[in-house]
Amino acid sequence: MIEINFTLIIQIINFLALIFILNIVLYKPILKVLEEREMRIDGQQQEAKKVVEDCQSLMVDYNQKLYNAKVEAMNAKNAARNEASLEAGGIIEEARKNAENIIEQMQQQMATEIAQAKKELEPELSVMAATIAQQILGRKAA
C-alpha cells in the first residue's frame, strides 16, 4: 500500500518544481517557436495567395491586351486590304478609260485614213474597174 509520509510530499514538491522548471525552460520556448513558425507559415501562405492572384490578374490583362492587339491588327489588315482594293479599282478604271480613249482615237484615225484613201483612190476607181473587168472578161469593156 501507499504510505503518505514525508518522502511523498518531497516527491510531489520535486514533481511540481520539475514541471515549473520545464515549463519555463522547455515548454514555453517551444510553444513560442511553434507559434512564430505557424504565424510565418500563415503569412507566407497569404503572400503566396496574393502573388497567385496578382499573376492571374496580370494574365487576364495580358490576354485582354493580346486579344485587343489581334483585333486591331486584323482591323488594320482589313482596312489596308480595302484601301488597296479601292486603289486597284481606281487604277483599273483609269486604265480602262485610257484604253477606251486609245481605241476611240485609233478608230477616228482609221476613219480619217479610210476617207483619205477613198479620196485618193476615187479618181483611179474607174480605171481600176475597167482594168479588172478587162482581165476578167478577156476583152475591153465599154
SSE topology:
Blueprint: H1 6-137
Uncertain spans: none
Radius of gyration: 58 Å
Reported for the largest beta sheet, the result is: none
What is the helical fraction, as a range of percent?
A: over 70%
Distance between the termini: 181 Å
Please, how many helices? Answer: 1
**Average pLDDT metric:** 90
SSE pattern, N- to C-terminal = H
- Outline, from the CA principal axes? rod-shaped
Strand content range: under 5%
Strand elements, count? 0
| Secondary-structure class | mainly alpha
Describe this structure as you would to a colleague.
The chain has 1 helix and no strands. By secondary structure, the chain is mainly alpha-helical. The longest helix has 132 residues, at 6-137. It starts with 5 loop residues before the first helix and ends in a 5-residue tail after the last helix. The mean pLDDT is 90.
How would you concisely characterize the structure shown here?
The chain is mainly alpha-helical. The protein has one helix at residues 6-137.
List keywords for this structure.
142 residues; mainly alpha; single chain
